[in-house]
Amino acid sequence: MQENIRNFSIIAHVDHGKSTLADRLLELTGTIDSKKMMPQFLDSMDLEREKGITIKLKAIRMELDALKIENLKLKISVQNYVLNLVDTPGHVDFSYEVSRSMAAVEGAVLLVDATQGIQAQTLSNLEMAKKQGLKIIPVINKIDSEIAKVEESVEELANLLNIMPDEILRISAKNGLNVEKVLEAIIRDIPAPHSAEASRGESFRALIFDSEFDSFKGVIAFVRVIDGEIFDGEKIKLMATNTPAEIKELGYLNPLFSAKQKITAGDIGYIATGVKEPGKVHAGDTIIKLGSDELALEGYQEPKPMVFASLYPENPDDFDNLKVALSKLKLQDPALVFEAEMKEALGRGFNCGFLGTLHIEIISERLEREFGLKLVISTPSVVYKIIDNKGREVSIHSAADWPDQSTIRSSEEPWVSLEVISPTNYIGKLMDILKALNGNYLDTNYLTPERAIIVFETPLRGIIANLYDKIKTASQGYASMNYKLLGFKQGKLVKMEIYVAGQKEEALSRIVAESEAYGEGKRLVEKLKDVLPPEQFSVALQAMIGGKVIARETISARRKDVTGYLYGGDVTRKNKLLDKQKRGKKLMKQKGRVNIPTKAFLEVFRA
């Protein structure tokens, strides 16, 4: 019955304890056997565990029966409840995952770390939740920490939500303190799902919020059922692509696929569509019964890629494998955008749009680990606009497309509004970092006497140049950032090319401000010197603009001691061997080409 269902998300800034709170809820409801339980249970991807962050939203069904309610002494009506949790990421690069999860639920637990207080992504996620009209349950976490500032955090959150401080729950997800109160608030305060078409028995509509590919079942769509009910084996239609299909299996996620005969309005579950073409199933699409006449659900606003990078297979024969791999990843990550491209210097590949540099890093590592692909990755770039001498406007997605400078009349780049939240004692260091972006300082607003929001307008290219890590380092992890696109402004931009051992590496080319070209070039060749392995010959690294070298470094040759076996005798014997070695190295230098490994590309764009 719908009145016993509660659909909710946990939203917070990165590392505020979302996954740990989810663990405690799974334990309290007995969803996971204690022998199978492990920390951050819902973070099933290896990359998530290695990096300590949630990358993918996860849905799981929990059941709370009357006996558990009595044992936990919860102050709610004693009956059976179904709790559908959609866990979400916290990093700014995965905000689209958060927005999709919110469209599938009626409420959200807003989690704030008592040791850090309100952070940039807290504000961003709260704004999204309010737009969706979700019921907010405010929770302060990590109250047992020695450095927790509980009362200050409660005051900040109360002022932000315009509520009384005693309405905010205080918990420790790590040791389970007061977590049962969160469970109680979810059931008491979050409304049950409402079906707009409950009176029409034949009506069925389900919103796809995520999907994945299975070799046998085809595309498996994770859905929130809005209206009606559907049975296993029924015929359905995907409205956006007008694709008919027959259900191979359906059911719930708790936590693995649990097949059922039907799913009904208010449920969050899965439908195995049998569709073998990933491009025909989109997040935000509406599933209806084949032959019925229904209006499509509102769906999602398409994400706008903020950063572009080109991916090329190291082995040209892997182009088709890369295409299939990207299609499968897009099922799980609709924010990924890609289209085929051909560059003379790089061959066949894909120009891909991402939400940030961490997004690029995660996708490229998944392509290597899950699909065994070795990649050449171009330097991340934003979208630029140029006006040529004939007055035509052209959009540039990568440095490889940048035309000859003499044909450009003017150039424009995207700017963003940047908000940095930090303790006041770190503001000086952060202002130095922000001033280096060559943007415009706008304002400093104080949340409390100890914490402030710095507001800047700056070029987007400065944001993608590892700004997040720089801010975290300067503030010892206490500061956070969030940004929104403003539009395009004129700038004096040039293309900087990188030559490795005399060969132009188009993938390493980048667009820079003319005034910053020397510093960028010097920093880039120094980073390359650190990450590229030495060869049998010396390797020259050069940054060039318009054929002029602006920075240079040299990787010394790996040296083999060819005279090691000699002892005594005339020195000319050694000299002959050394001269022979020199000639061999010179020949290798003329014929050789330096292969740049995938990890080196990743290290360079983190610089």
Count of β-strands: 31
Overall number of domains: 5
As a whole number of angstroms, the C-alpha radius of gyration is 28 Å
Known CATH architecture of the largest domain = 3-Layer(aba) Sandwich
Note the gap between the termini: 54 Å
CATH homologous superfamily placement of the largest domain: P-loop containing nucleotide triphosphate hydrolases
Largest sheet: 8 strands, antiparallel
Map the helices and strands:
Elements: E1 5-12, H1 18-28, H2 46-51, E2 58-64, H3 66-72, E3 81-87, H4 95-102, E4 107-113, H5 120-131, E5 135-141, H6 150-161, E6 169-170, H7 179-189, E7 205-214, E8 218-227, E9 229-231, E10 235-238, E11 243-246, E12 249-253, E13 257-259, E14 262-264, E15 268-272, E16 286-289, E17 307-313, H8 319-332, E18 337-343, E19 347-354, H9 357-371, E20 375-377, E21 384-388, E22 393-396, E23 408-423, H10 427-435, E24 440-448, E25 451-459, H11 460-463, H12 467-474, E26 480-490, E27 493-500, E28 503-504, E29 510-513, H13 517-531, E30 539-545, E31 548-555, H14 571-591, H15 598-606
Parallel strand pairs: 1-3, 1-4, 4-5, 5-6
Antiparallel strand pairs: 2-3, 7-8, 7-16, 8-15, 9-14, 10-11, 10-16, 12-13, 12-15, 17-19, 17-20, 18-19, 21-22, 21-23, 23-25, 23-26, 24-25, 27-28, 27-29, 27-30, 30-31
